Amino acid sequence: MKSKELAVCLVSGGMDSLVTAAIAANQHENLAFLHLNYGQKTEKRELESFKKIAQYYNVPTTHQKIIDVSFLKQIGGSSLTDDAIEVKKYKGESVDIPDSYVPFRNTHIISMAVSWAEVIGAKKIYIGAVYEDSSGYPDCRPSYYEAINALIKQGTKNGDIEVITPVIYLKKDEIVKKAIELNAPLIISWSCYERNDKACGVCDSCALRLRGFEKAGLADPIEYDQRPSYL
After folding, report:
1. Which of 29, 79, 146, 220 has a CA positioned 20 to 30 A from the CA of residue 5?
2. 94: helix, strand or coil
3. What is the rounded distance in angstroms from the CA atom of residue 144 to the CA atom of residue 165?
4. pLDDT of residue 134
5. Rg for the chain, CA atoms, rounded
6. How many domains does the chain have?
7. Which alpha helices (DSSP H) does the chain contain, by range?
8. pLDDT in tens, 163-182
9. What is the DSSP letter of 155?
């Protein structure tokens, strides 16, 4: 049986956050969706995807929150937010932190989610962090979420809010299969770092997504400018 407890779900509009929303919807009757505009190059398309996903899961407008955090663009330091830094093409596996990393972004996002959760009485916050991405992103590591949950326990009124990471140990092909299993609408998700009209197919995010679909033996339903093979 689904829990009647309200849960907050962070929904960027990407595939990982879509599947996380699908998992949350499978476990909770009542959801609240949070989206942040932070000056990213694909802000317009990500917001469009967020709205479509919220509509698909029947999230009432009173429980849809869109917050402007454009100070992250002012800070810069990422190819996603800084116009002076070009979005790089995928060049294969690397242990280096890519320039698409937005400094400390997830902490800002989670902090706002926790604040909102306290206001609306939610105890669970779902986020689509994936460990496979943590070769580049330090705020996608399981150890980071252990630390952030310890901080939340210490820094909130009742100390009973928890961040849930249901896809953190899944590979991209497993996330694709989970989306199919849960009937998540992949066609309205958006993962590209660079373009708003059609996915570029060559940035890191597009490459990981396309490879996930290839490994799953499925075709990605969204439109791409290029569809290289990443197997």
Report:
1. 146
2. coil
3. 11
4. 47
5. 17
6. 1
7. 15-27, 43-56, 71-75, 105-120, 142-155, 172-181, 204-216
8. 999 999 999 999 999 999 99
9. H
- In the chain, % helix, strand, coil (3-state, to 5) comes to 45, 10, 45
Q: Are 10 and 122 in contact (CB under 8 A)?
A: no
Distant-in-sequence, close-in-space partners of 47: CB < 8 Å, separation ≥ 6: 13, 35, 37, 66
Asked if residue 228 is part of any domain, the answer here is no
Calculate the CA dihedral of residues 126, 131, 133, 136 and round it to 10 degrees: 120
111-136 mean pLDDT = 90
Within-domain flag for 62:
yes
217: amino acid identity, one letter: G
Using the Cα atoms of residue 75, residue 41, residue 53 and residue 18 in order, give the sign of their dihedral.
Answer: negative
Dihedrals φ, ψ of 89, to 5°? Answer: -80, 150
Q: 48 lies in which domain range?
A: 7-185
